[in-house]
Amino acid sequence: MTADAEVAIVNADVLTMDASAPQADAVAIAAGRVTAVGSDEVGTAIGPATTVVDAKGGAVLPGINDAHLHFTAASMAAFGYVSVDAAAAPSWAQVAASLERAEPGDDGWIRARGWDDVLIGPAQGQLLDVRPGVPVIAFDATGHQLVANRDALERAGLTRGIQAPEGGVVGRDADGELTGVFQDGAMELLNRALPPIPQRTLREAMLAMQRRLHALGITSLTEPGLGPASAGLLDGSGSVAALRLLGDLAEAGELTLRTTVLLLFAGTGGADAAAVEAGLNSGLAREYSDRGLDSALVRIAGVKVFADGIPRSGTAWMTEPYGDHCTRGSLVVVGRSEAERVEELARILELIDAAGLQAGIHATGDAATGRPSTRSSRGPTQPSTATTSSTVPSAATRRCRAWRGTASATARIP
Fold first, then answer.
1. pLDDT confidence tier of residue 381, bands split at 50, 70 and 90
2. CATH architecture, domain defined by 7-62
């Protein structure tokens, strides 16, 4: 042993993840690395400056890796927005009441998050008239839909004539008026109108979320989607500014979560090869390496690509018609036909592969997950990886139901 351990944990039940010796009773750590395992080796690593922790028989586990955690959005959801989840607001009336009590942020907006239409019923304009004079936007628990009040719609310049973008759904009532509901690709229409999140607010939220994750045993994660197309994903907080803030935290020694980032050059509606190519040529993929940051701590490994949406909003691409819309959904990629969209997706993946990066593919419908993902010529060294699980249509999913109730929607899905 060439140097003393910084920390030694003794009298422990250590899960080693080594099949030949799955358990041990002690572990030593130096410079962020495990340097010794077992009481014999650890004993020789303990020096005058070593902090010795007596685990008293407690378990010591490897840090947990979260392979798909929207860290920026989760940080803001937990520590930056008004909570309107089922615990805080178990009905639409209580969601509205929470928003009536909320204080606007420094930018004059109220941002909330957490409602779930499975628990409190569908959004059908319940928040349109909440807080007159103050723009309000509330994201749901899944991150795939939002509701906005009339002031937010006005700030965004959205009126009855607005059309849903590719892969998006715009909620309307029986008379065709906007209900304030926007799903998947249509969320970008509102997100682009939001003022940028102040860096101090985002920084504090990220550090608070980091502490929460460490308390849960999570020491590393993949942040699947930061970049110039952030308005097309979740709450829009995963901007280039957020990407650079992670680098700032690493430089300052404040980032302790080992973080792998996927870049986002096209959101959940109308992804195209031109946008991805421009993003790859921008040099953003070198943001951390050009700054000399430790790649073991923070690195950019690939590009997030949306192949389709989700079943709940009818934007997942299925082999058979399903849901209230009685459609199959489609690829959320530009193209006038299914064949053109498939070809465009293949081109996007080829560009990512040629750049030496991995593709993290969001694909939920069985038609989307069943397509060949790439025509890579470089073999398995840079594999494309599906970042969300597939959904195969069940009998209930395949059954088309007549649209019930007074609400309707317009969606650009064939």
1. very low
2. Roll (2.30)
